[in-house]
């Protein structure tokens, strides 16, 4: 389902996957192999479930809790459904390169998109004209998609909000998640580590 484009394709994959799992489970049981639980897992399938999935015992989507740009692009969600952000500060101006330097690199975001998005490695929330063009371990370089960057709009210390391409990879980089409602932190979640 991760290679789908849109809801009809996602649901088609979910239907085929569910049918195959249930058939496999029946074959195991016919051979005397107990199979008490039938499950599938994919965020796209769970985002647009098909009726056949009601026959499963469980579903286990990995990305469903946050969503991300990748899920938006394949049709699992809309931009406003994405619940994860990485905040970064502007720490440098480079007018000769038409770039901002920010304090978020690949250890805070991940390189998963390989910079292939029209906006580079992530979306810069509220600034569709900005592109995260490169990252080192701790720093990122942001420039305009086109035209001259107005540095006065982004003073040193100002905060930008990045929407990651892949929330799983991004979430794995952080020891805590700050849950907020309208900018007020209401909870801190600690992720479980290890497999």
- H/E series, N to C? HEHEHEEHEEEEHEE
Structural class call reads: alpha+beta
Unreliable segments of 5+ consecutive residues: none
Given the structure, what is the number of helices? 5
Q: Give the strand order of the largest sheet, numbering strands 1, 2, ... along the chain.
A: 5-8-3-4-7-6
Based on CA atoms alone, the radius of gyration comes out at 20 Å
Question: Helix fraction?
Answer: 10-25%
- Look at the structure and give the mean pLDDT: 93
Strand content: 15-25%
Q: Which geometry do the CA atoms define?
A: elongated
Beta strand count: 10
Rounded to the nearest angstrom, the distance between the terminal CA atoms is: 24 Å
In terms of topology, how is this protein built?
Blueprint: H1 7-30, E1 39-40, H2 43-47, E2 58-59, H3 69-74, E3 86-94, E4 99-102, H4 106-109, E5 122-124, E6 130-135, E7 140-144, E8 159-164, H5 167-171, E9 177-181, E10 184-189
Parallel strand pairs: 1-2
Antiparallel strand pairs: 3-4, 3-8, 4-7, 5-8, 6-7, 9-10
Keywords, please?
single chain; two-stranded parallel sheet; elongated
Descriptive report:
- With 195 residues, the protein is of the alpha+beta class.
- It is built from five helices and ten strands.
- It has helices spanning 7-30, 43-47, 69-74, 106-109, 167-171; strands spanning 39-40, 58-59, 86-94, 99-102, 122-124, 130-135, 140-144, 159-164, 177-181, 184-189.
- The strands form three sheets. A six-stranded antiparallel beta sheet has the order 5-8-3-4-7-6.
- The radius of gyration is 20 Å and the shape is elongated.
- The two termini are 24 Å apart.
- The mean pLDDT is 93.
């Amino acid at each position: 389902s991760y290679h789908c484009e849109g809801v009809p394709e996602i649901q088609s994959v979910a239907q085929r996957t569910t049918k195959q799992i249930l058939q496999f489970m029946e074959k195991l049981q016919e051979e005397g192999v107990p199979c008490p639980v039938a499950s599938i897992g994919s965020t796209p399938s769970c985002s647009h479930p098909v009726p056949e999935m009601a026959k499963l015992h469980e579903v286990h989507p990995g990305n469903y809790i946050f969503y991300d740009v990748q899920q938006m692009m394949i049709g699992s969600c809309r931009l406003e459904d994405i619940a994860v952000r990485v905040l970064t500060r502007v720490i440098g101006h480079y007018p000769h390169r038409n770039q901002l330097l920010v304090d978020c690199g690949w250890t805070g975001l991940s390189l998963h998109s390989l910079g292939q998005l029209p906006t580079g490695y992530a979306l810069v929330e509220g600034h569709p004209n900005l592109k995260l063009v490169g990252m080192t371990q701790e720093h990122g370089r942001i420039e305009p998609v086109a035209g001259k960057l107005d540095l006065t709009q982004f003073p040193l210390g100002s905060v930008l909000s990045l929407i990651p391409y892949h929330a799983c990879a991004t979430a794995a980089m952080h020891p805590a998640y700050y849950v907020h409602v309208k900018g007020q932190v209401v909870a801190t979640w600690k992720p479980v580590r290890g497999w």
